[in-house]
Amino acid sequence: MKTIEKSTEINPNIEKDFQELQNKYALLEQEFEQTAAKLNWYKEQFRLSKEKQFGSSSEKSNSDQLSIFNEAEKEFRPKKQEPTIEEITYKRKRNKGLNKKSFDDLPVEIIEYKLQEEDKICPSCDSTLHEMSKEIRKELKIIPAQVKIVEHVRYVYACRQCEKENISTPIITAKMPNPLLKGSFVSPSLLAYIMDRKYSEAVPLYRQEKQFNNFGIDLSRQNFANWIIHAANSWLVHIYDRMHYHLLEEGVIFADETTMQVLDEVGKKPSSKSYMWLYGSKKPKRQILLYEYQPSRSSKHPKKFLKGFSGYLQTDGYPGYNDVKDVIQVGCFAHARRGFTDALKSLPKEADISTTNAKEGIDFCNKLFSIERSLRKLSEEERYKKRLEQSKPVLEAFLSWLNIKQKQVLPKSSLGKAVKYCLNQWPKLEAYLLDGRLEISNNTAERAIKPFVIGRKNFLFSKSPKGATSSAITYSIIETAKASGLNPFYYLNYLFEKLPNIDLESMDELDKLLPWSDSIPEDCKIPNKD
After folding, report:
1. DSSP string computed for 371-401
2. Are residues 255 and 232 in the same domain?
3. Cys-Cys with 346: which of 48, 156, 237, 261 at CB 3.0–4.6 Å?
4. Model confidence band, residue 24 (pLDDT cutoffs 50, 70, 90)
């Protein structure tokens, strides 16, 4: 009987197939991890997009923030007692935050209500009534803008004696101010009013046209636009150039830029982006804010505008400023913190915020900002010393934390981008330790460019580069005037009265008209808060 033996030999192809399966499994596992990482990234972007679209734009939460659409309903209090004029006046004097004149400075119009002589009869005894007392009710009355025609009449004089003796008669003409625009009826006050409403109050020209029509005055928005462009490019540009000259003498300049749309640019589509650049200084009592329109975001624009400047340049980290020579660049910790805030917003709701890396990054930034708030009232030299004592150790710990987290987070995640931004910008971010005049963030520039951003929402676009340039000049004059405590309307009116009648080649004459000049009349200044 034959014994059947089992074969113990292994098919050599099985080992090969097993190895191939292992390789495929490893490849699929890697692809799965990549897909999961992409999915998490898309989830982050989706959550962050929803937060930006529907959430608060501020990085701070405010439970009292109201919607502009239902503010009246939320503030409605039918049982709240009306304040008296005396109460409001007292509060205005007591609260230093209100910077308008007390009601005592307003003109008073008195309307008296008396009985007619035939009604001053006592209904009981028919005797004549006398005035026992009087009741007074006070109201605030608004008088809409008044428009009137001003005729400038100047007389021409001659000598009758010379005429009698047949002597050549001298003709002498009385002096009269030069007009703002020859052949036009536009006055300094009219143009100042239109400019102030457009650039300071963000009222578009077509709305102003409608409002004038409602007063029975037929003025065209095309006329408004022509007047603005002429005034900016013929008169205000001289003040702008002098402010530019003085800006380059400063030791610290901050800069920012934002998009705008200009329809009739040569070689560009109407839908393409142009840019409004902002440069400014924050010297006490002489803050300068200059806007400049440019068709692109190229680095050549700040390089040209800041030519001759030597000092500190604070930006949000945009590399377009890297070509500016002879400057020490300073970064913005508000932008650094914003990256971690976005990472926090992109987390799913079930995430434990208190233990996230994003929260740790925010905590480092908040600690630095807290130190800055405590040093706000110190001198520049004291602030410099305190920063080295208090802020430098926090910065060193933050940098160590960033280097560790860089190896642990996904580079393309929101948190990875925030960490990468900080590390790439670190020399600029810590540069504010170098000088007590410097700020920890570039928020001053962001606040300064905001008036243009608000106006852009109403104007949507500029028709031509010439119009965009005139807007930049006008914004510069108005915003610098505000920073100097001037009323934009009265200051523009003053400039339009003076500029056509001075020597524009005289720098001394122009310097007397600058917003911070001691020569500016008191009527142009906003009343003190006291």
Report:
1. HHHHTTTS-HHHHHHHIIIIIHHHHHHHHHH
2. no
3. 48
4. confident
CB 302 within 8 A of CB 277: yes
User: CA 282, CA 264: separation in Å to the nearest integer?
Assistant: 35
Measured in degrees and rounded to the nearest 5, phi and psi for residue 129 equal: -80, 150
Query: Considering just the CA atoms, what is the radius of gyration of the chain in Å?
Result: 34
> Based on the domain organization, do 356 and 227 belong to the same domain?
no
Residues in the chain: 530
Backbone angles phi, psi at 151, to 5 degrees: -100, 120
Q: Are 476 and 280 in contact (CB under 8 A)?
A: no
Q: Are residues 310 and 212 part of one domain?
A: no
- DSSP for 506-527 reads -HHHHHTTSTT-TTS-GGGBPP
Give the range of the structural domain holding residue 356, as residue numbers without chain letter: 247-448
> Is residue 318 packed enough to be buried (19+ CB in 10 Å), middle (13-18) or exposed (0-12)?
middle
- The candidate with the shortest Cα–Cα distance to 491, out of 520, 528, 527, is 520
Q: Which two tokens stand for residue 76?
A: 């409605």
Q: Which tens digits make up the pLDDT trace of 111-132? A: 888 888 888 888 888 888 888 8
Model's pTM, two decimal places?
A: 0.76
Tokens matching residue 246: 């003085």
Domain count, the chain: 2
Cα distance between residue 283 and residue 278, in whole Å: 16
Q: Are 473 and 233 in contact (CB under 8 A)?
A: yes
